[in-house]
Design a protein that fits this description.
The protein contains 15 helices and 3 strands. With 330 residues, it is mainly alpha-helical.
């Protein structure tokens, strides 16, 4: 067996799971990145993954792997950088376990992330949100489940993993009704619910009739919905809603768009960015500034309205009549 195999095993079991206690999503993302790299290295070196050594994964090979991801697999810059993050994480771990390979490790860690274009976020207007929420057929159990999921997603801005992780006990419909979730970075947070949303969830919970630890929004077999299931659910109802609200058909809408819509709705109603960051569970308020303030056209229009058009005469307004002057001075 090579030196790479026990290193990878220790990285996932000791570093990620035991020491850092990262989420299942992080483990899955890092696993997928390394599976892709090992298959690529097998094609380049002719060695089976279990026989690869750390020295086989030099900076040149990893650079070629990153180019392969973009050129052959068609991934975007963000995905390319995410794969590189997973690779760097193991090499930082290898710096402690394999100091004899420090030169190789430093060369890999020096591979830079690629700059990517930052497009404005896509979000739904109030009319589009209303159309989407009304799309599920509430005469069926599946439609009532989907309706409740869309309502809570648009109001709370929960991430997909947070939505699918909700259990029946995550919802408190008493005084100060709220939903409790375990978010990114294992941070627990609570998000308040409007009275109308509490009514929707109360009806769904009565119909759901599940135990406290069972998923709030179950799949066909009773387990939690997968990320792909939520994506398909959103796409299906967006297509139905677009019949009556054509503007929905012009946007690329994913489950994360519902989170953006929640944030932009709060911003449009005058909620400050610090509160929005707290609402969404952002680690750094700069994330809220950079993502949502840039996308708020209304904010920029209001700022422009406060400025004088070019070639506007300076000076204060003076009423042209004594009577108007009297009234203006009241």
């Amino acid at each position: 067996m090579s030196t790479l195999a026990p290193l990878l095993e220790g990285f996932f079991t000791e570093r990620l799971i035991a020491q850092r206690r990262v989420s299942e999503h992080t483990v899955s993302a890092y696993r997928d990145a390394w599976c892709l790299l090992l298959r690529f290295a097998q094609q380049r070196t002719g060695k089976a993954p279990q026989r690869l050594d750390l020295v086989d994964l030099d900076a040149s090979l990893i650079g070629s792997f990153l180019e392969h991801l973009e050129a052959d697999r068609g991934v975007g810059v963000r995905t390319r950088n995410a794969r590189l993050t997973a690779i760097r994480s193991l090499f930082r771990y290898a710096a402690y376990r394999c100091p004899e390979h420090s030169e190789l490790i430093q060369r890999v860690l020096a591979i830079p992330s690629k700059k990517n274009d930052k497009a404005l976020v896509t979000y739904l207007t109030a009319e589009e949100m209303a159309a989407l929420v009304a799309a599920p057929d509430r005469s069926t159990r599946l439609g009532r489940r989907d309706h409740a999921l869309l309502v809570i997603a648009l109001e709370t801005g929960l991430r997909v993993s947070e939505l699918t992780g909700l259990t029946c006990s995550s919802v408190d419909l008493g005084g100060g009704g709220h939903v409790r979730c375990l978010g990114k970075g294992r941070k627990e947070r609570i998000t308040p619910l409007r009275r109308e949303t509490r009514s929707v969830l109360r009806v769904w919970l009565d119909e759901r009739n599940g135990a406290a630890a069972e998923p709030l929004f179950p799949g066909p077999r009773g387990g939690p919905l997968s990320r792909d299931a939520v994506r398909r659910l959103v796409e299906r109802h967006v297509a139905d809603a677009a019949i009556g609200c054509p503007s929905l058909g012009t946007k690329e809408i994913s489950p994360h768009t519902l989170r953006h819509s929640c944030a932009m709705n709060l911003l449009r109603h005058g909620v400050d960015t610090a509160t929005i960051a707290l609402f969404l569970g952002h680690e750094d308020i700069r994330t809220t500034y950079s993502v949502y303030l840039h996308a708020d056209l209304g904010l920029k229009e209001r700022a422009l309205a406060r400025t004088a058009p070019p070639q506007t005469p300076s000076g204060r307004y003076r009423p042209p009549d004594d009577l108007l002057a009297f009234l203006q001075g009241l």
